[in-house]
Amino acid sequence: MDRPVDRLADRPVIAVLCERASDRPPGIDDLPVDFQYCAADGLRDAVRGARALMLWDFFSTAVRDVWPYADNLEWIHVTAAGVDTLLFDELRDSPVVVTNAHGVFDRPIAEYVLGAVIAHAKDSLRSFDLQRDHRWQHRETRSILGAKALIVGTGAIGRATARLLRAAGLEVRGAGRVARSDDPDFGEVVASSNLAAEVGWADHVVIAAPLTDATRGLIDAGVFAAMRPGTHIVNIARGPIVDNAALLAAVGTGRIAATLDVFDQEPLPADHPLWDAPNVTITAHMSGDAIGWRDTLAAQFAANVRRWLAGEPLLNVVDKKLGYIPTGDR
């Protein structure tokens, strides 16, 4: 941490939690506030007297540990779409406002999903293997036109994904808390509580829901068993939404294909069986990280700081009880 908090300063203090104290968000130092940059081991001192906290290290769980020292906190901003690693009972019950990076990752993640769908249809994994072996093998592949995609999670990321997949010619449905018809992005939304009865319709099952008590383990053995052989599952949400043992059983036999960007353990251990499972593509929790994403996150936070200083309502306020921004039934 750079220096102790000056409780007598006229400018409000904002603590900024970084993975390393030197790994700072770009372009925010000209804001009329005093920033206290720290890593997790300095957060206790940084939050004393601070009125706001920015989680640049957005996967950190350190806030819970220092909560008794956050004696003046009004606002926490998380530079991620998901807030599952932040929320705990004392924070939920407090008046502290939580905001997130709503909107920053929607389009990049939708593009990732479309790329995964195309790569699966065009059998790209097999092509890479053949190229590595210097083997020329002509094959026929599938078109994505008319393929069916069930998107589990009807928030902003799910909606951006639905729009892009529809534009590419796929038939799309959503799965959310409440079944409904005539949704502007999904058409039909089925109840995620009845997922096992719905996934048999889909060629691609896209997981785009927030991690909450209701979604943890949602994609379980029963849901996998109800999928048609050859179904392709894409997870760009959170690893624990999918039951890991059920996932391994489903992909281990080659019955289900998967594109996985998130896992219940990250980084994924080098000896994890998913690395060698057939028809599985693994990426390192990067589906939303298009070049320039850190600049966009910092600019979004800076805009909210200006609103906060002006006494205007903050953007992207999370419902702490639900665990996400209630933009519609998810």
UniProtKB/TrEMBL annotation:
InterPro entries: D-isomer_2_OHA_DH_cat_dom (IPR006139), D-isomer_DH_NAD-bd (IPR006140), NAD(P)-bd_dom_sf (IPR036291). Gene3D superfamilies: NAD(P)-binding Rossmann-like Domain (3.40.50.720). The keyword NAD applies. It comes from the Bacteria. One of its GO terms (molecular function) is NAD binding. Residues 115-287 form the D-isomer specific 2-hydroxyacid dehydrogenase NAD-binding domain. Keywords: NAD, Oxidoreductase. It holds the Pfam family 2-Hacid_dh. Residues 41-318 form the D-isomer specific 2-hydroxyacid dehydrogenase catalytic domain. Belongs to the D-isomer specific 2-hydroxyacid dehydrogenase family. This is Phosphoglycerate dehydrogenase-like enzyme.
